[in-house]
Amino acid sequence: MDALQSIGVFAAQTFLILFAVIAVILVIALLAAKASHKSEIQIELLHKRYKNFRHLLKAHTVTKSERKELKKKLKEERKALESKSSDGDKKIFVIDFEGDVKASAVENLREEVTAVLTLATPSDEVVVRVESPGGVVHGYGLAASQLLRIREKGIPLTVCVDKVAASGGYLMSVTANKILCAPFAIVGSIGVVAQLPNLHRLLKKHDVDYKEYTAGEFKRTVSLLGEITDKGEEKFKQQLEDTHVLFKSFVSRFRPQMNLAEVATGEYWYGEQALTKLLVDEIRTSDDYLLTLSEKHQVVKVKFEHHESFSDKLTGVLGKALKKGALSAVEELETRRFL
């Protein structure tokens, strides 16, 4: 019996020691991760990447004797490039924007544009690859404003659309001096939409009162749970029309050559169709455009990366889980205006 008690005490002590050691290691790891927590701009030299593709393919398609000669030639090219000053050369800066309904990528976009503007000059060019079906008005309005910062500095701006730049995505695109579009990419959708369910009748059926207090006649025109009056609904529709007018005015400002009455109907078009309606300037993929530019110029991809620390990830798990649950559902049901 005493032997069993001794073994139990020993096991408990061992467990406590292990627990203490693990706790200390976790604390140190959390502190170290928090200390290394940072956000940064990442740079990728696309012209070098494309050259590496060519060199790799060439190295595998020549004889052994030719391979030696190729290595010698590449070495000489590298030396020549290293000794050559690139200060006066035209640089192509590339930014990718992949938009969701909330235009979440605008937080990275503003940092990327700021980084580019610290170096770019009017003799350079900025290429933005936009992929977005649209979303909230204020988010895509801010995204378009970020691209305008480039144009207002007199720096040529090109937008490439490989898959979709509709509604808010097209709002961003029109800020460019030139819009390139893949043959089957979707562009246009110059319109505004808002939608929400209304549960007022359901609540009334089950004798559930919903009270909503506002100051200002049109503080809340329509809502998820409150009664929607004819006056409130009419005002809400007018607000949608006002937003559409702003959208059309913005598009017309940068692409006056378009027949606005024909294209500002909320419809979308594929690349070839969009070209005939002057929504885009050229049918061409971003891959082909950048590869061609890389033959004569430096092509620099700029990307802002936000690195979450381990502690942020750990503490954020519960919050994200809640957001994906009931709270997120309510949030998504709230009235929003979408471009």
Task: Note the main attributes of this structure.
339 residues; flat; alpha/beta; 16% strand; 2-enoyl-CoA Hydratase, Chain A, domain 1; three-stranded mixed β-sheet
In short:
This protein is an alpha/beta fold and about 350 residues long.
Describe this entry's structure for a reader.
- The longest helix has 34 residues, at 2-35.
- Helix 4 (106-117) runs parallel beside helix 5 (137-152).
- Helix content is 51%, strand content 16%.
- It has helices spanning 2-35, 46-59, 64-83, 106-117, 137-152, 168-173, 200-205, 230-254, 260-263, 271-276, 286-294, 310-323, 326-333, and strands at 39-45, 91-98, 125-131, 157-161, 164-166, 178-181, 186-188, 193-194, 268-270, 282-283, 298-306, 337-338.
- The protein is of the alpha/beta class.
- It contains 13 helices and twelve strands.
- A seven-stranded mixed beta sheet has the order 1-11-2-3-4-6-10. Strands 5-7-9 form a three-stranded mixed beta sheet.
- It has a domain at 40-192 and 254-306: Alpha-Beta Complex (2-enoyl-CoA Hydratase, Chain A, domain 1), CATH 3.90.226.10.
- The termini are far apart.
- The chain crosses the membrane at residues 6-33.
- It is found in: Cell membrane.
